[in-house]
Amino acid sequence: DFKMDYRIYMNNVLDYKGYRFFQSSYDSDEGGTILSVNSDPGKWPTYIGYFLLTLGLLLNIFNPNSRFRKLAKAVNEANTKAICAILVAGIAIFGVNKSYALSMPQIPQSHLDKVSTLIIQGPDGRMKPFDTMAHEILNKIYRSDKFQSMDPNAVFLSMMANSEIWRSVPIIKISEDELKNILGIPKNQKYASFDDFFGPNKDGQIEYKLIKFTELANRKAPATRGLFDKDVLKADEKLNILYMVFIGEMFRVIPKIDDFNNTWLSPGGALMELSGEEASNVAIMLQRYFTAVLESQDSGDWSKADEAIEAIKAYQAEFGSSVMPASDRVSLELLFNKYKIFQNLTPVYLLAGLTLLAVVFIKMLRPRVGINLIFKIAYWVNILAFIAHTIGMGLRWYIAEHAPWSDGYESLVFIAWCLAFSGTMFARSSAISLALTSILAGVTLFVAHLSWLDPQITNLVPVLKSYWLTIHVSVITASYGFLGLCSLLGLFTLVLFALQGKNENKELTRNIIEATRINEMAMILGLSLLVVGNFLGGVWANESWGRYWGWDSKETWALVSILVYAAVVHMRFIPKVNSQYAFAVASMFAYSAIIMTYFGVNFYLVGMHSYAAGDAVPVPDFVWIGVLVMIIVSLLAYRNRRYSVRL
Length: 647
Known about the structure:
Elements: E1 14-16, E2 19-26, E3 33-39, H1 43-62, H2 67-76, H3 80-90, H4 100-103, H5 109-116, E4 119-121, E5 127-129, H6 130-142, H7 152-161, H8 163-166, E6 172-173, H9 177-183, E7 191-192, E8 198-200, E9 206-208, H10 211-219, H11 227-246, E10 254-255, E11 264-265, H12 267-273, H13 276-299, H14 303-319, H15 327-339, H16 341-365, H17 372-400, H18 408-425, H19 431-448, H20 467-499, H21 506-545, H22 553-569, H23 580-604, H24 621-638
Antiparallel strand pairs: 1-2, 2-3, 4-5, 6-7, 8-9, 10-11
């Protein structure tokens, strides 16, 4: 007859008398939940075991007789303490020819500043400033942060107020020539207008030109869709977003009074769902604002529009305060949108890294050349870029209210940070490390800002709302940065071997020794973080759904990665492969296990961590080109393996 009230949901388990009650899954229609019961008498012995293994890996870094400390001493005795301290602190333009912007009704910046801080509820429920929504939509449909000379806030507001004018403006980015032909726009035109998607059929009736193509593309499995199919679906999505802007559906600024789910409504939604005095007040308030905007565009006097927008803000503050973000958070989000830190760091990392790498090669081949000033400038630009990257990560964390590595875009940005961090760690001992990681960090940020990744800040799904996940992902992703450095140093070492001639170049040999030692140090750190990250993943899994390990695809490949790098680290105990050359080849190719764990599992295998449910996407050509380059470099270096010494 015992009764107990308790809410059980993802990451909120009930522990009672040695039993754990938790949500293991839910019905596909989300109408029912599946609860499970687990009794785990070995929970604390397991956690203590994890702790002791983690402690052992950490002490291995500080033990003066450990392999790591011996390598550090060989690289640079003066920097050993600094490296260990950093480790402890670190774990944890294209436009269209015609200027449409100039012909649009002008909106003064003073009013746009007021509009930019208006709070909007996004489709995922996240509360964001108008400025963020405007940036996201313009970037989605136009693939740029500005439409010619127009500010995103001006574009978004003007689209709602003057939708008839915007229907004929080419603003939807189109890449596929066949798609342009269907829409009836020239091949040299990069953008299509809303009206371009509609035209008369053979019976003279207006129809959507892409209807049969979108239906056909949607019937295909993702793996079988060609470039044209993908472009059709992208264009269709952009058109629908533009239409929702025109009708104000994206303008969800009205909080529904006393709503349990804190739902906010668009103008159309408010008229449909609200009733009585609430509906009347909202209708008057919205009509007053948009009428004032239209009148202000003609008269140039925006005082009434300013008053009307302040009235909407007051309404939000009165009835939506429970979900309204703090004013300082909104201000920082506008600052984050303005400076686009991660996007602007891409060329900085690439140029600084390439410059530093060029200087390193010149110094190796011509030691007497005086280029120390260039070296110092490139060095400090890299360091400052890393500091700016760190600030950007902190800002995104504060704005999103969760750790910034919860989706594909954020994880790539974080991996770029880890790469830059690993290079910074060894910067004073090896300029090579800093140059290589800076280049790879720039490439990673470049990939993060390609069209197939969405940079917008979103709310977390329930399963990801766990501090254990934050720790698990941060540690395991940090390992990717160090292991990525190992792969780069392996490639660099092989290039140096290939450059050796018939007579040994002592400068190249010295750099091979230095690169190999730092490579092994980075691998010890990366492997330690990878192992600890997997321990933390087991803790997160147990705390969220009552089991440590389920042989999920991601879990299995994480174990494969650990075994691969454990084998590479211990190669020095096998006489036949105990050489700098073999270690360089192994460290370069070993990163393929990490790539499979990070990308391959998500898009090729079925599992809890998969994004494509097993629908394999075509392997990009650059992957095969990269593999071919690594094989060629390995073969070229093989000729000079005689210069290789034991580890």
